[in-house]
Write the structure tokens for this entry.
Amino acid sequence: MYLVKDLVGGRIVYFWQDKNGSPRSDFFNTFFNAEEWWKTHVFSLYAGVERRTSIIDRRTNYDKRRRLNHNHRFASSAPNGRRITDLPVKVSRDLAADKLQGH
């Protein structure tokens, strides 16, 4: 899935699309809400026994994690975590930028 940033009704919104461009979520007013929806969605797809008690990863302080990984000789081989939901979410398609520039 791809995170899309768009300008709708004069407001910035975020939503998720599948690889075909079809919407997979509602509009979200904040990046954080879009990220939380995605994490919840991915966790809901897992059919096995979930060992994590929270979808919030304790390693979400990316700057601190990067510093520790850089300064420690025996740092983790996967400093961002092993799951896709542990990685920082990024906007894949920014439709708002084009609309704000008048294209």
About this structure: The mean pLDDT is 79.
